[in-house]
Amino acid sequence: MMTYIVFILSVIFVVSFVGFSSKPSPIYGGLVLIVSGGVGCGIIMNFGGSFLGLMVFLIYLGGMLVVFGYTTAMATEQYPEVWVSNTTVMGVFLLGLLMEVMLVLYVLKSEEVGVVFKFSGVGDWAIYDTGDSGVFSEGIMGVAALYSYGAWVVIVTGWSLFVGVLVILEVTRGD
Amino acid sequence: MNPLIFTTILMTVLLGTMIVMMSSHWLMIWIGFEMNLLAIIPILMKKYNPRTMEASTKYFLTQATASMLLMMAIIINLMHSGQWTITKVFNPTASIIMTSALAMKLGLTPFHFWVPEVTQGISLTSGLILLTWQKLAPMSILYQISPSINLNILLTMAVLSILVGGWGGLNQTQLRKIMAYSSIAHMGWMTAVLVYSPTLTMLNMLIYIMMTLTMFMLFIHSSSTTTLSLSHTWNKTPLTTTLILITLLSMGGLPPLSGFMPKWMIIQELTKNSSIILPTLMAIMALLNLYFYMRLTYSTSLTMFPSTNNMKMKWQFETKRITLLPPLIVMSSLLLPLTPMLSILD
């Protein structure tokens, strides 16, 4: 099972995406986002990105999703929708689950799967440790490169985030 | 809106488009598109009423979907070529997805449904920015990936856009919807020649922006958003009736006005590449466009449209200042004799 851990994690990833895109109430969407964030962190860690996985947990789950949870809790309604309360939500959820199950069976049974890109069976999902990740981890070196060669990226993304806040304040302020 | 915030957000719209046009890394292009989209939402919502909110929501949803498709195409391209620079797209699937994403951003058929509804819901100035500035960024990316675009898909979308732009505008009396359908048709003309000669795409874009700017400035000057209120222009400023006539006929592509130049060059380029039926169809469908421009000029400049008597005696309040209207009018009507200058572009 450990050789196919990435495949299993990716299936759970897709299922949790189906879970929140079938649009229950945002509180339950946030719950599933936590699961998908944790599973995504697991996928990244299996590829050797321990720093990035830590970033997902700390910043994404521990910062952004917490703020999202608080604001949703302030704006929630008396009887929020679950996946089984509304026929539409349940239908979409089951449809997404069905499509994922069929895709998983397709991957497991056939030799070669060519949806958008070709990969041959489940074996392509297994992580083979090629060993040489060097003395430094790629994640930390990436951050160092971001702040040195990638200064323009820092400026652009920082400005986008700042303008995002300005835009949201402007839109919700109204007249 | 607070003037400082408004200036910041407007500059961010400009910055987003500049980043898209100047970057060589696909990720930066995507960031530029997102910055552009995010910053234009409060500009679309300048007046705070349900129509603008609905229009901004529609715009945001379609453009965000297009950005997601673009990101998917970028990642497929990364998988197949291993690099992030913008040259041509190395995989046919990625190329088709990217073309569809950029067509959604431009408003080409079959992704044109948002253009009339969004343009109708917002104010005239915001509609101006939407129909001119927002077309620059996707067109620049199409220009850069033009060697690898699937010809069948692009030409189908272009021809259908010209058809939809002409046919859809026939039943409209609201000026903003007319300009939206005109935009769809002109985008169709621009993308039809993209694979054959991208320079002509840029020429068409330039002349289209000038003509659309002129039209919107004239509409803003008379504060008219319907055909009926435009038909009262003879009473407010009689000079602008002539200007509306000239500019609308230029948009319809009639010689000797400058709107004829891109159509002429495009038809010439297409026939040089041995496609005869396509430019014939395109020229015939441009007549639909010309019909509803002619209807506007008929009610505005050529006749005194029937109106109630109190509409015939309007008070003159303070005139709005319209930026650069005389040069725009001159450029959007008198540029045709400069066509031989295009030979410097080769």
UniProtKB/TrEMBL annotation, chain A:
It catalyses: a ubiquinone + NADH + 5 H(+)(in) = a ubiquinol + NAD(+) + 4 H(+)(out). The chain crosses the membrane at residues 5-21, 27-44, 51-71, 83-108, 146-169. One of its GO terms (molecular function) is NADH dehydrogenase (ubiquinone) activity. Its EC number is 7.1.1.2. This is NADH-ubiquinone oxidoreductase chain 6. Belongs to the complex I subunit 6 family. Pfam families: Oxidored_q3. Keywords: Electron transport, Membrane, Mitochondrion, NAD, Respiratory chain, Translocase, Transmembrane, Transmembrane helix, Transport, Ubiquinone. GO terms for cellular component: mitochondrial membrane. It is a multi-pass membrane protein. It is an enzyme of class 7 (translocase). It comes from Equus caballus (Horse). Core subunit of the mitochondrial membrane respiratory chain NADH dehydrogenase (Complex I) which catalyzes electron transfer from NADH through the respiratory chain, using ubiquinone as an electron acceptor. Essential for the catalytic activity and assembly of complex I. The lineage of its organism: Eukaryota, Metazoa, Chordata, Craniata, Vertebrata. It comes from the Eukaryota. InterPro entries: ComplexI_Subunit6, NADH_UbQ/plastoQ_OxRdtase_su6, Nuo/plastoQ_OxRdtase_6_NuoJ. It is found in: Mitochondrion membrane.
From TrEMBL, chain B:
Residues 23-285 form the NADH:quinone oxidoreductase/Mrp antiporter transmembrane domain. The chain crosses the membrane at residues 26-45, 57-76, 96-115, 151-171, 202-220, 241-261, 276-294, 322-345. Residues 290-342 form the NADH dehydrogenase subunit 2 C-terminal domain. It is a multi-pass membrane protein. It is found in: Mitochondrion inner membrane. It catalyses: a ubiquinone + NADH + 5 H(+)(in) = a ubiquinol + NAD(+) + 4 H(+)(out). Keywords: Electron transport, Membrane, Mitochondrion, Mitochondrion inner membrane, NAD, Respiratory chain, Translocase, Transmembrane, Transmembrane helix, Transport, Ubiquinone. Its main location: mitochondrion. GO terms for biological process: mitochondrial electron transport, NADH to ubiquinone. It comes from the Eukaryota. InterPro entries: Complex_I_Subunit_2, NADH_DH_su2_C, NADH_UbQ_OxRdtase_chain2, ND/Mrp_TM. The keyword Ubl conjugation does not apply. GO terms for molecular function: NADH dehydrogenase (ubiquinone) activity. Its EC number is 7.1.1.2. PANTHER family: NADH-UBIQUINONE OXIDOREDUCTASE CHAIN 2. Belongs to the complex I subunit 2 family. Core subunit of respiratory chain NADH dehydrogenase (Complex I) which is composed of 45 different subunits. Interacts with TMEM242. This is NADH-ubiquinone oxidoreductase chain 2. It comes from Equus caballus.
